[in-house]
Amino acid sequence: MTEPGVPGSGPARPDPADLRTARPGRPAGTPSGSGSTTSRAGAPGAGGAPGTGGEAGSHLWPGDHGTLPAPARLALARLVRGPYLAAEPEPDTWRALLAHEDVVRERLADQYLDLVVDADAQVAFVRDVPAADAPQVVREVALTFLDTALLLHLRALLLDSSDGRVAISRDEAADHLAVYRRRGGGSPMDFSRQLDATWARLIESGILEPLSGDRCTVSPVLRTVFGADQVAALSAEYVRLAKESA
Fold first, then answer.
1. What burial letters (b/e) apply to 191-218, b meaning 16+ CB within 10 Å?
2. Across the chain, what does the average pLDDT equal?
3. What is the pLDDT of residue 19?
4. Distance separating the N- and C-terminal Cα atoms of the chain
C-alpha cells in the first residue's frame, strides 16, 4: 500500500508497509467484528449450558472429538479469533492459557501460527510462523502514514507509563499529529477526516479500547506487537520529518 495518509508529497516518507501487523491474531478472512470479547451463547464458560468438566478428554457436545478441557479450548479460540487475549478482562481464560500453554502452542503450530506471550503486559496473540514456505494465515493491515505516527506515539506513552495504563482522547491525538498536517499542507477538514479514519482503524484493530466520550485506553499489546529495531528506525525518521515541519 502506498497511500501516505497525509496530504501533499513532501520528502522521503517511511514505508507504511514497515508496520503492518496492527491486527495481531485475527486470521485472514475473519470478519472485522469478530474481535469482540463478548462470549457466544453456549460456548464453554459463556453463560450457556456448562460443559462436562475441565479434564482432558471430556466431551463438551455430542460427537466432540476434542481432547482439551473447556477453559483451554476457550483460550485457543480467543487467540485464533483475535485480536489478542489479555488477562485484565478475561482472567480465567488467561490462566487457562498459561496452564496449557505447551499444548495450545502445538495446536496453533498445526495451523501455521506462532504464539506470542508477554507475561509482563499479560497479553498474548498469534502471528504467522517465520517459515518461507508457510501460508499467510493472519490478516495484515497496511497502515497509513498517520496510523503509524499515532501508533508510535501511543507506544511511547505506554512505555513511559508507570502502571502500564494510558488513556487518550481524539483531541489529544490530533494535537500530537498536527505537525504532520502542517507538513502536508492539507486543509483542517482533510486532516480531521484522516484522523477520524485512523482513530476508527485503531479501535477496530483492538489497539484502542473505547471508554466514554472520545477517550480510549491503549491496549498493552502495543508494547509487544512491533519489534524494537523496527520501531526505533521508524521513530527516528518521524522525528526528522517533524523537525522539518516545525
1. beebbeebbebbebbbbbeeeeeeebeb
2. 75
3. 46
4. 28
**CA gap 16, 22 in Å, rounded:** 12
Report long-range pairs for 207-211 (Cβ below 8 Å, ≥24 apart): 207/22, 207/151, 207/154, 208/154, 208/168, 211/167
The full 3-state SS of 146-185, as one line of letters, equals HHHHHHHHHHHHHHHCCCCCCEEEHHHHHHHHHHHHHHHC
Helical packing angle, 101-109 and 91-99, nearest 10°: 80
107 Ramachandran zone, left/alpha/beta (phi>0; psi -120 to 50): alpha
Q: What is the mean pLDDT of residues 170-199?
A: 83
Kindly state the average pLDDT of the residues 173-184.
78
Cell numbers given for 24: 495481531
Does pLDDT of 22 surpass 50? no
Give pLDDT tens digits for 47-101.
Answer: 333 333 444 446 888 998 888 999 999 999 999 988 889 898 899 999 999 999 9
**Which grid cell is 106?**
502445538
